[in-house]
Each structure stands twice: as C-alpha cells, then as structure tokens.
Amino acid sequence: MRAPGLLEARQSLAPYARPAVAVDLVILTRVDEALHVLLIRRGEAPFAGRLALPGGFLRVGDGVEDQGEDLDRAAARELQEETGLAPGDVLLEQFATFGRPGRDPRMRVLSVAYYALVRPEVAQRVRAGGDAAETCWAPVAELAGSTLAFDHGHILEVALGRVREKLDTSSLAFSLVPESFTIPELRAVFSAVKGEPQDPGNFRRKVKRLVEDGVLETAPGRRRTASKPAALYRFRAAPRR
Amino acid sequence: MRAPGLLEARQSLAPYARPAVAVDLVILTRVDEALHVLLIRRGEAPFAGRLALPGGFLRVGDGVEDQGEDLDRAAARELQEETGLAPGDVLLEQFATFGRPGRDPRMRVLSVAYYALVRPEVAQRVRAGGDAAETCWAPVAELAGSTLAFDHGHILEVALGRVREKLDTSSLAFSLVPESFTIPELRAVFSAVKGEPQDPGNFRRKVKRLVEDGVLETAPGRRRTASKPAALYRFRAAPRR
DNA sequence: GCAATAGTGTCTTTAAGACACTATCAT
DNA sequence: ATGATAGTGTCTTAAAGACACTATTGC
Fold first, then answer.
1. What per-residue confidence (pLDDT) applies to A9?
2. Which of B9, B61, B102 comes nearest A45 by C-beta?
3. Is residue B2 part of a domain?
4. pLDDT at residue number B65
C-alpha cells in the first residue's frame, strides 16, 4: 500500500552505501588559567592505548518507523554516559562534521562533533565513563606534541578555534564559570581561551558595561578568598549586542 | 587473518543501523541589493512540486577498501552537477549538520549542509542541473512565507545567520563581488547580507583601511556605469583582523 | 546643463589598550 | 602591619555612526 512515487524514491536511495555516524565530544573546562579537555584512553584497536575524544555511535532505530534519536540528544546521551553530567549542567553545541575517508581505518565513519563547556565546580563531579575507560582532564596548551587517536587532534583544534571566535560575541564564557561568579573568575576564562592575560582594569570596564546593558546582574554574597573578597555577578539573558 | 581486537571492534559496531547521509547546498549570490538563493523544484515525492535546496547523497564506496569521497568533495561534486560551476568559482564551506528524526519521511537522513557564495557574473552562467529539474534564484528576503521541502527553510535560516556572523570578521564578502570590484559593489553585498543600507562615506572609510592594511589593493581600469565611473579594487589575502 | 553616482571631510560617540593608583580583606 | 588581590581613574588611540558636502562622469 505504498504510493508508487515513494517506492521509486526509496529505491533510488537504496544503491547508496551508508556511512557509520558517530557523535564526538570536545568537553572543555577551565582549571586556573588553563583550558582543559576531557580525554579517554582507548582500550581497543584501532589506536589502542592512545588518548581520544569521548564519543559514540548515533542510534538510528530501524530507520523507517523509528528513526532513532536526534543528534543533539545523542550528544547529551554520550555526555551523560561518559561523564555522568546531565544537559543543563553544560553548554552543548554542535560545531562541525568530519568525514575524511580513512579517518577510521575500520570503515567509513562520519563524526558529528560537539563542544561541551563545563563549569569548574561541575567538572569536579565528572567520573569515569560507563565504558570503564580511563578518563582525564588534559590542558589543551600542552597537547601540541601528543597525537590523539583518529583525527581527534584536528577536531580539537577546530573546536578551540570556534570557541575562541564566539567568546567575544556570545554568552559562551558564562558557561565556564560558576552560576555566580566574580570578575576575576570571568577574566580567567578569557585569559585561558585567548591564551593571553587580560588587563584587570579594562576587563572590569567591559563587565560593567554588561551590567549596565542588563546582560549581567549582581548576585548576593561575596567570594571568600585568601585576600580581599570579590563581588559576585550572575548571567541574566541574551547574548550581548 | 584479522587481529582479534579489530574483529571485536568491528562487531561492536555492526549492531548499529546507519543513517543515509546527504550533502545539501545553500547557494547564495547577490542580485542588486538583494541576496538570492538557488532552489530547485522537486519532481518526486516526498514534497513533489515544492522548492528545495539542491543536494545529493554522499558516496561511501564499499565502506572498507574504498571509503568513498570526502564531504567537501561531495559538496563540490553536487555543486558541479546542479549548477555547472567548478570549485574555484565559488567559496564553499560546511556550516552545520541536520539530523532531526522524521525530517525525511522515507528514512533517517542526515544532511551535512554547505553554503556556496557565487560572484554575480558567475551566477549568470548557472544552468539547470543534471537532474533536469527546474532551478531558480529566489530572493531570500521574500521567502518568509513559502515553506521549502523537508527542513530546508530552517537550514537556509542557519546558513544566513552564519554568513551574517562572518561578514565582518572574514573575507567572505569578497566572494560575492567580481574579482575586481568597486566600493559601491562591495557595499551592496553588505547591504544585502545585513538587510540594511550601509552609509556610503563610512563604508568607504572602512574599505580604505583595508587597502592601507594590505588586505585589498587597487586594480587597473574603472567600472563603466550610467554615471561617474568607479575605481576598482581587488582582494589580496588574509581575513581582516 | 543636469541627473546620477563616486568620492571627501567633519563632528560625535563608543570602545579598546596601557597603566598608575586606591581600597579592603585575611593573616 | 602587610601582602595580596579587588577595584578605580585617566590618558590615548581606533573605529563606528550620522550627515553635509564636492567631483566627475554620461547623456
């Protein structure tokens, strides 16, 4: 009981072999002034023993009646499986898809890549994934030498470039500080992402403008530190500009 | 004669059904002060008779020995097939991947989406695609009402957002003017993409800065028009700032 | 000459960079 | 009291927006 046109269309698609599709995650957090990425050590071939980005295969269902899970949902599921973190704890955004033939020696695999930005206090809750693999936070600046599995080094570079691009023009930075944060904490995010120190005075002026524009608001309490306590701020809404 | 680890790995992948993967193109050019997108009218179900973005399926080979074509190459091939344009004539960049279950009623299909920016004089060379379907340039501003096939309306929106974002921070605009262009021509690109007129004086000042910075250089000749001829410029290198 | 569009100049506001300085906390 | 870090103020330069004005071409 199918329309002929539909049948034809389906047949015209049938000849094409299909790639496997994975979702890989660049999970970033900030430790002091350095950006860190979550890596897992692979237990199996290929690239056994090498560090890799966490990820997994997209669930497609039977492909017709049940078309499976959404890409964003697959990314959130992988994040949950690998770190125990729920979406809502993190900013999770797709940034590119990688599909060079040969990037996985076993078979044709596309990787839809997401970056996840994790607040520092949440990052501490991360526990080893269900695959029981060894996971660790690695400082991205010191990763230049070591080669990651597959093309994950390249994927990481692209992710960092994108995060750097969006830092000044989106509200992305607020996902790398606690919900209530101090100006020096936010400044540390900018230092870590841009890889160069930010002037305290000028940075403070920029934050003040955001408060005036209603993007940020003051939050109750102060951050207790080893010296003078700092005032707290909190994100309100809408990307700036 | 396979390593056991590899066999295990392959088997662990086998249970997963695979999605079909298409590459879809948002082909943009500028006509006067309005941005236009190339659409094709679908001849087959689903969405027969509706306008859609050009695109096609990724070639994957047998998936092991021959892993098929690269994503960028697939996009260039589709562009060639649908318009007759060669890469080099256009700027072609991947911008996002769409995979909502149900976006294609036939089966699970992911769409890796590219935008292509076409110079106006090149756009005139575009001829109907090999699929013999009707193709046309549609002004994007007047497309609000009409619903495109699949989620192509959404894909178009995302493409436009991305192009708008990158207009001021990349050399993308120079792909929407002739290789030698006048300041008013470039200004028309900015007007079309941003959707609002650009001040002639201020815009000229911005271009002058690019010349001083070595991003642009003067080109020989002048553009003959109905009134005063305009001086020509040409792109030299590197995205600005 | 005249219409049309290229091209110039000026005034104001906003934001960034550099950097000296003051204030307030824990110990 | 003192060291450390939070927070303030100022000077300069770069760039954006608004807008009045002049110059050069085709017809």
1. 43
2. B9
3. no
4. 78
Closest CB to B21 among A19, A107, A169:
A19
- What angle (nearest 5°) sits at the alpha carbon of residue A17, between those of residues A13 and A22? 110
By CB neighbour count within 10 A (0-12 exposed, 13-18 middle, 19+ buried), where does B224 fall? exposed
Last residue of some domain: A122, A143, A166? A166
Which nucleotides on strand D sit less than 7 A from a protein beta carbon?
A: 3-10, 15-20, 23-27
Task: Evaluate whether residue B222 is within a structural domain.
Answer: yes
Where residue B206 falls (left for φ over 0; alpha for ψ -120 to 50; beta otherwise) is alpha
pLDDT one-digit tens code per residue, A187-231: 999 999 999 999 999 999 999 999 999 999 999 999 988 899 999
Contact B126, B37 (CB under 8 A): no
Give domain status of residue B11, yes or no: no
CATH number at residue B217: 1.10.10.10
CATH number, domain of A33, equals: 3.90.79.10
DSSP-derived 3-state class of residue A196: coil
B61 or A13, higher pLDDT: B61
pLDDT tens per residue across span B112-134: 999 999 999 999 888 766 555 78
Domain limits at B151? 17-166
- At residue A7, the pLDDT reads 38
pTM of the shown model: 0.91
Residue numbers in B 126-185, CB below 7 Å of strand C: 182-184
Backbone angles phi, psi at A2, to 5 degrees: -105, 150
B88 vs A: CB within 8 A: no
Domain endpoint, select from A166, A182, A208: A166
- Strand D close residues, chain B 194-223, CB < 7 angstroms: 199-202, 205-206, 209
